[in-house]
Design goal:
This protein is of the alpha+beta class. It contains 11 helices and 23 strands. 27% of the residues lie in helices and 29% in strands.
Length: 451
């Protein structure tokens, strides 16, 4: 029995890409898949979602009287306010008020001015609610002259715009071990979603254009699905439609390594100061904190706005991987700078916006009493209630094995439905030719780059 378990774990390790697709989309490294998570990482489902009280107060009081919200170390919501009356209302609601000089309207106006300036690749900016500032960062690729010009723009806005140079480069690109693979690159899968008819993987939009065919191996033998309905730049999300049409048993589970997982019970928008976890195909499971919202990043490939900024580390190949807390889905990895040796900044596409734009729902665990598994969780204001006690339930290795067996079954790979008319035969033939072309190009590409 012990040997059988080891074989299953090895199989999870070897097919981590496939397991990630089915297990809530999380990709894990070999170390995480074969060993218990490092105790220093913490327990993934111990990071409680934000209450949403601060967000609700900002929405109710308005952008002229507030300047964002966050949660402090004790978990209490803090709201930045510009007048005493607003402070009284915040305290009455049970949150802590902090008086600031610049309103949320001022901060957003500053970012609008930055967006209207000539675009400089390798720069990013976000709203730092805690310091009542807009922080602008430039990576190592930004020239001295470009940085000087952007600094002049910032001076024209006012002293609440903070300029910082950062190590490394802001990049979306994908590389690394055990991801989902195509000729478009290598990525990590995000969360499983559905439109009620078919199931999909939600991942990053920059991972590949519409029509990209994804595989679970570097020889193009284990086809997973095809990209469609992506958005990048501007946003950074896309769907990969399962070839079989269904994600299967365990689609509501996020793998955390060692054959265990966390059940995804809902989705929400995060708050600044919230503790979060993210997983990816290169660096595995990592813990961090939300540091800013509404971030804009000028990647070499284009500008993406409305991102979540965090201090959690990430590395090439982690793109598309999920960010979550206590079983609540929050975002998918877009890009960032640095690595997990020295740290860095990582940006995430909010899940709520992606699902709204795509018209799909997150596949979530069935709630106590038989709730529907594909319904989204409550909004951010109800985030704390979205995670049920079952979100921390470990998933047995046997379940992981059955999921991998299902995906690698040849009967689940192909066009899916039988054709009953000549027009459908032509359609399927066209898709098959496209898949075969992608498969051959894929093999040629990776045989050249991987040796």
């Amino acid at each position: 029995m012990r040997h059988a378990r080891r074989r299953v774990v090895r199989r999870v390790t070897r097919l981590a890409a496939v397991g990630g697709l089915l297990l809530g989309g999380v990709m894990v490294t070999r170390a995480v898949a074969s060993e218990p998570p490092d105790p220093s990482i913490g327990v993934p489902y111990a990071a409680k979602p934000a209450t949403g009280t601060g967000t609700d107060l900002v929405s109710r009081l308005g952008a002229s009287r507030t300047a964002g919200s966050w949660v402090d170390a004790s978990g209490r919501p803090v709201v930045a306010v510009t007048d005493e009356k607003a402070a009284v209302e915040v305290e009455r609601a049970g949150a802590r008020a902090k008086r600031v000089s610049h309103s949320l309207k001022d901060l957003k106006s500053a970012t609008a001015t930055l967006r209207s300036a000539p675009r400089v690749s390798g720069t990013a900016w976000a709203l730092d609610y805690k310091k009542n500032q807009v922080v602008v960062r430039g990576d190592s690729t930004v020239s001295a002259s470009d940085w000087s010009r952007l600094t002049e723009v910032a001076r024209g806005i006012g002293g609440f715009v903070r300029m910082e140079r950062t190590e490394g480069t802001f990049t979306t690109r994908i590389n690394g071990a055990e991801p989902i693979l195509s000729t478009a690159g290598r990525c990590s899968a995000g969360f499983n979603v559905t439109d009620g008819r078919s199931d999909f993987i939600l991942t990053a939009g920059h991972c590949g254009p519409d029509g990209s065919v994804w595989f679970a191996d570097d020889r193009g033998r284990e086809q997973v699905g095809t990209s469609l309905r992506g958005s990048f730049p501007g946003d950074d999300y896309s769907l990969v439609k399962y070839d079989s049409g269904r994600a299967g048993q365990g689609a509501d589970v996020v793998s955390i390594g060692d054959g265990k997982g966390v059940r995804i019970t809902g989705l929400a928008d995060p708050e600044v100061g919230q503790k979060i976890f993210r997983s990816g195909s290169t660096s595995g499971l990592r813990q961090g904190e939300v540091t800013a919202l509404n971030a804009t990043v000028n990647y070499p490939e284009g500008t993406v706005t409305g991102l979540i900024e965090t201090d959690v580390c990430a590395e090439p190949g982690d793109s598309g991987g999920p960010m979550f807390a206590d079983g609540v889905a929050l975002g998918v990895t877009s890009g960032g700078s640095g690595d997990c040796a020295v740290g860095g900044t990582t940006f995430f596409q909010p899940v709520t916006k992606a699902l709204s734009e795509l018209g799909v729902k997150l596949i979530v665990a069935e709630r106590a009493g038989g709730g529907a598994g594909a319904e989204p969780a409550p909004s951010a204001s109800q985030g704390a209630a979205a995670a049920s006690p079952g979100s921390s339930a470990p998933v047995p290795v046997a379940d992981v094995s059955s999921l991998l067996t299902r995906l690698t079954d040849p009967r689940n790979v192909g066009p899916g439905l039988l054709v009953i008319a000549g027009s459908l035969v032509a359609l399927v033939a066209t898709r098959w030719i496209r898949a075969e072309q992608d498969r051959k190009a894929y093999r040629q590409y990776y045989s050249a780059t991987w040796g």
